[in-house]
Amino acid sequence: MLSERRVAIIGAGVIGASIADALASRGVRVTLFDMRAPGAGASQASAGVLAPFIEAKPGSPLLALGARSLLMWDDFMAGVRDRAPGHEVEYVRTGTLEVALSDEEHAHLTTAAAWLASEGVTHDWLEGPALVARAPMVTSAARGALHLPDHRIVNVGALVRALVQAARLSGAVCVTPTEIVHVEQVRHGVEVRIGDQRHTFDHVVIAAGSWTRRVRVAGVPVFPVRPIRGQLLHVRWPDGARPAHSIWGTRCYTVPWADGSLLVGATVEDVGFDERATVAGVRELMDAVVGLLPSAADASLEAVRVGLRPATADHLPLLGPLSSHPGVILAAGHYRNGILLAPLTADIVSKLVLNNERDAALDLVSPERFYGYT
C-alpha cells in the first residue's frame, strides 16, 4: 500500500522541503532530517529570484530546466498555500530589468533580445526616456535595459517554513538537528545510520546541499559538490522611488520586497565551508549597487546574509537514482538555481518514488555523469 512506503529525506532546505511536501501530500510516510533547523543553510541566504533567462545561457540544458520549472511555479505556490493555511509567502511576478552600462554589455543584451524574440519569449528593450520612466533610480550611465516581465521573486524563508508545515500536516516528521553520514542499500530497503542506531527506509533522498559530499553511500565515490559562498546585503531603501523590479547589472542584482527593503546580491567565493560575512564582500556589493542605483548610497544596512551554494563542475544538479543503490536518489548541487528548480525537482523525485517514472531530464543530470558511466 502507498501509505506504507517510507522515505527519508536528508536535508531540509528548499529542495528537501519541496520533495517532502510533494511526497507526504501523496500519502508517503516521510521523515525529514537536517543537521540544522529547516532552511538554515543556503536557503536562508537566497534572494529568491526566479530568472532563468538571466541565469542560464541560450540553448543550454540549465535554461531548458529553468524555463520548464518557471512554468510550474503558479501551481506549486497554489498547492503550498492550500496545504499550509495561514502561512503567508510573498510571491510576485515583478519581472527583471537587466541593465547595460558599457558598449560590451549593450551588445550582449541586444543579442540576448534577438534570441528571446526568436524563441517567442516576452521581453522589452528600454533605453533613453523609456528607461528613465520605467526605472528612474537606475544610473544615468545606463546604455539600455532588457525587461523580462515573466520573471518572479519569492520569499524563500517563508516558503521553506510553509513547505515544512504542509508536509507535517500531511503526516511527515521533521527530525533536527540530526546528521546522517552513512547510507547503504540493503536487502529490504535503504539503511541509514544515526549515531549508533540504524533505520531502514524504502527510499532515501539526499538533498543536503553543500554538505552532500559528507553523506557517504557505501561503495560510491564522494559526490562532486563543493560550496561556493554567497554574501548578500539586506538594506532599507531611502526616501524616494524604490525599484519595482529585480534590477540586474554585471556586478550585482537587487530584489525589492513589499516591506520596503531591498536585497543586494551576491558574491561568488570559492572558500570552502567558510560562512563568515567579510568586509571585502560587503564592500564589493556596496560599490556595485551604488554604481547601478546611485541613491542606494543613502540606504541603511540592516543585515548581511551568507550562504554556501552547492556547485557542481557543470553547474547542473545531481538528480536521480544511483545505479548501484536504486533506492537512493540524489537531489543536490543546484548551485544558484535551487529555488527556481524546486518545483521541477520535487515533481521528478516524487514520480520516481511513487511510480518509478523516469523524467527525460534525468538523462541530463545523472548523479553518475562525473564517474565515467551513466
Protein described:
- This protein has 2 domains: 2-84 and 156-225 and 314-371, FAD/NAD(P)-binding domain (3-Layer(bba) Sandwich); 93-151 and 226-311, 2-Layer Sandwich (D-Amino Acid Oxidase, Chain A, domain 2).
- It contains 9 helices and 21 strands.
- The chain has helices spanning 14-24, 52-55, 61-70, 73-83, 103-119, 129-134, 156-169, 279-292, 338-355; strands spanning 6-10, 29-33, 49-50, 91-92, 96-100, 124-126, 144-148, 152-154, 173-175, 182-186, 189-194, 197-201, 203-206, 216-217, 226-236, 246-248, 253-256, 261-265, 300-311, 318-321, 328-332.
- The strands form 4 sheets. An 8-stranded mixed β-sheet has the order 6-7-5-16-17-18-15-19.
- The two termini are 31 Å apart.
Question: Notable features of this structure?
Answer:
374 residues, alpha/beta, D-Amino Acid Oxidase, Chain A, domain 2, 2 domains, 8-stranded mixed β-sheet, 6-stranded mixed β-sheet, 9 helices, 21 strands
Short description:
By secondary structure, this protein is α/β, with parallel strands linked by helices. It has helices at residues 14-24, 52-55, 61-70, 73-83, 103-119, 129-134, 156-169, 279-292, 338-355, and strands spanning 6-10, 29-33, 49-50, 91-92, 96-100, 124-126, 144-148, 152-154, 173-175, 182-186, 189-194, 197-201, 203-206, 216-217, 226-236, 246-248, 253-256, 261-265, 300-311, 318-321, 328-332.
Terminal Cα span: 31 Å
Oligomer: single chain
CATH class of the largest domain: Alpha Beta
Q: Report the sheet-strand fraction.
A: 25-35%
Radius of gyration (CA) equals 21 Å
Structural class: alpha/beta
